[in-house]
Amino acid sequence: TFCFPDRAPLPRNMIENSMFEEEPDVVDLAKDPRIHPLESDEIEYEPRSSRLLVRGLGEHDLDEDEEDYESSARLLGMSFMNRSSSLRNSASSYGRSSDGSCALPSVRTLCLGAFVMGIIVSVVMVIYFLPKCTFAKGGCHKENQTMEQVYPIATDGRVFPWAGVRLPSSVTPLHYELVLHPNLITMNFSGFVQMTITVNQDTNKIVLHSSGLKIEGAAITLAARNHLVQVLEYPTHNQIAVLVPETLVKGQNCVLMINYTASLSDSYSGFYKSSYKTKTGETRWLAATQFEPVAARTAFPCFDEPDFKATFLIKINREKHHKALSNMPKNVSTPIENGLVQDEFCVSVKMSTYLVAFIVGELQNISKDANGTLVSVYAVPEKQDQIQYALEATVKLLEFYEKYFKINYPLQKLDLVAVPDFQAGAMENWGLITFTETTLLYDNETSSLLDKQIVTIVIAHELAHQWFGNLVTMKWWNDLWLNEGFATFMEYTSIAKTFPDLQASEDDDKFLYTRLKAMAKDSLNSSHPISAKVETSEQVEEMFDSISYEKGASLLLMLKTLLSEDVFQKGTIDYLKTYSYGNTKSDDLWESMNKIKDKKLDVKELMKTWTHQKGCPLVTVTNKGKQIQLRQERYLRSFSSGSSTSDTRQGAHYYLDPFCMSLWILIEKKFVRISTFYSQLDTIEVADEVVWIKFNLNMNGYYIVDYGEDGWAKLINLLKTNHTILSEKDRAGLINNIFALASLGRVTLKQALDLVQYLVTENCTAPVVEALSQLDSIIKMVEKRELLNLAKAMKDFIYSILQRGLKLHLFTEEISPKEITGINALLGLMNIYSVQVCFVPFLQLDSTVLRTFLFGSLPTDLMKTVFSVGALTSDGWKFLLDMYTRASSATEKMKILEALASTYDVRKLIWLMQESLQENSIKTQDLPYIIITASKNLGPHLCAWNFVQENWEKLVQKFHLGSFTIQNIITKTTSHFSTRNRLREVQSFFDSLKDKGSQLRIVQEAIETIQLNIQWMDRNLGTLQEWLRNRTGLS
Ligand SMILES: [Zn+2]
Known about the structure:
Helix 8 packs across helix 9. Among the domains are: 152-362, tricorn interacting facor f3 domain (Immunoglobulin-like); 364-487 and 496-502 and 513-614, Neutral Protease Domain 2 (Neutral Protease, domain 2, Orthogonal Bundle), CATH 1.10.390. 53% of the residues are buried. By secondary structure, the chain is of the alpha+beta class. A hairpin with a 2-residue loop joins strand 23 (616-624) and strand 24. The strands form 8 sheets. It has an 8-stranded mixed beta sheet, with no helix packed on it. It has a 5-stranded mixed beta sheet with strand order 16-17-18-20-19. The two termini are 51 Å apart. Residues 1-2, 461, 465, 484, 487 line the site of zinc ion.
């Protein structure tokens, strides 16, 4: 999967780095109407009085929908009292009965409770007196079968014969034959699945996954005899159990058949419906799938764990005017009853259930041959003019991967489909990759260079999965990083070779930002080891985070730097060849690397320390003469005590040390690059006296470095006098590290601010973007405490150090992706300030720039910033809304929508969010972007946070608990808070959710982040004020 929070290239800090940010105890806008953040003639902003006015608007406009009115009213600062009761109502603790109704009457509840207790007691006693595993036949693959695994009760009140969340290993599926008929008028589908199963251990039950399916009947074929069988359901674990009339014997094969019906899903997972409007305004429907990680079970009963690989024969009944697509090429089409047509697809290769896919609808395509594989790109008919670029890019990348992995793409065809409604960025279903429209479609007129970069990166990612993930799959979701870390890593490798102009190779900045982003998240106590224990569906969903993707890719880069490009590639090929069509653990990859490289280094031992522990190392360097002393500990931002770095639980032997591979020192004015691998981390002795020292060449290692008071002073001096002596990435790395250390209190904020002043002479983007990322976090926090003068002083400071670079890059004829990223980061941070201070002088000074503005040859990447400025006035906003309705390119629409959402007028914002939540003129898939954009602005940020609280149930229904989208919404709406009141509010909201959110790791992260923000403000606000005061005094 390709998950990304912000489609447009926002500065990294806005995406992830939530260190500081936002607002005081006094800032509750609903409570204090006097505080007004911005001049009223520029911005429409609604303090309390207007909020009430909005309530009036709610009554007037929305009175047909009681609930909408109520949520709007609450959103506007009204009572939150009713929320918990509504939560309670829907959180019935009973499973659904077969007709879908919930909530049993209380007398029955009591009886059932007593009955359940009775069963529990007897089962506990029975288990106690029986030898281990008697009940858990085949279930002992899960260690620790403990007393708590008492069998649960199925929906019909009988005992469900399996207690584990994971399936038993007593049987294995070999082959599925699946017939599906999605009805795009009734929005239901019916299915028939026939599974060939082999028996590994004697058993009299078959336990498999099924969720939300209405089982109509089931039968089993044993020794050529058919038996009708009973099916028990246990919805809590998404499991069904088939009770077999006679014991299945080890080595025997049987065929299980199940008939079922279900509704096409309203969310973005499972077998779901999607719609789009034709040019003439008609709504058209299609049905598509998104199964990763745990939704195949919502489309057909199956063994929905990645290591139950099997072959699939899929048949789809469809209307004549529709097209059906699946993983494999179509074998035959047959007319069947009711004027329908049945498409039968070829039998698939052996694969995991989460990679199965099918789509039915009116899609059109263009195709091209790539080394014997037919590559096709599909989109809705209206967007046929936007698929050409994707086809060319895919062909080129596919050929690259076949060469790189030395394994041909194993299927005859590869389809890429832009699905109008899609939650993630893309999904790597084998042979049928699905995308959201913004990540596949490229419109020559409205798409920008960065849009092209994103399309190419996402295709590169998904194609890498066809090998890494599809051909070789992780055994279980704890090793998801093998899939996602590797695919993320390969984006850079493949693009470097295929599309160097896009500047998304390992040598470019993008990968650097990836590493820094991962380290920021990993520095929290709520982080997790890259290979983490997971069991439940939510835990599985939660694995799709920055750690699996970005930390995974960062560790692979570090390993590659250590082993060399050649060894790394050979090890990868060995791994893919050895485990083709199989499943693996992390260790298998390391074993393959071990086979290739020389014997001295044990990759497995080395990498274990990085994959089994959470966090990233902090290395402290002290230098005396020729001696360099190194000490390592965990880089942990902790709020509990003053000294906040050591992870004492883990001891001092925290990490092994591949980081010495990139040691630069300057000895008597010449560089010595030491790239030896040190097995012990203590003291290095070099031949000559060290003048200054810089570790972690190009930030290729996953760790930060503290050079001590003296060491930092030397480096700051070096940057100010001769910064180009260090690489661009090293400069960015120093900026990152010093701010990280400032947040720990290891260096002062003053030192960090002192360092970034060298940027006056900086021409490269990476250091600028990194500095902006750090400073933006601080500005956000300051701004939302309504310290507006202070925020303005910071922006003045930033402008003063960066204006030269801005003039250098802005509005040049040929602007590179790197430069655009830099400019967007700057303009995004400056926001309104950018209009007043940055743009206006340009407009006055330079008539060509003025022309650029007026006649619209503005680089399309800057469109969003310009639109955002336009959206600040009422007329401008209306104009943009109209433009949004008419725009046909998804990327253009997204840019306009983000501009619309950056309004300070909360009435408009609420309208946008409601419109999107109800899937009216704005797609619900875009709601997260509205919420996230609004969260950046003072005032609207509270509106967005309230909206999330009020509509939590709906958001979770649509986007799934634990999903990347939900994680992102939580992070972006709360990471700005820096006061104790907000901390309490956030805590109590999530506490009130109970099993509908309080247990999420991201919630712990959000709370930890606010605690850290509070601590940061307590420690540094005074310093910051003083530093800026002195600076202004001087200038
Ligand atoms: Zn992926």
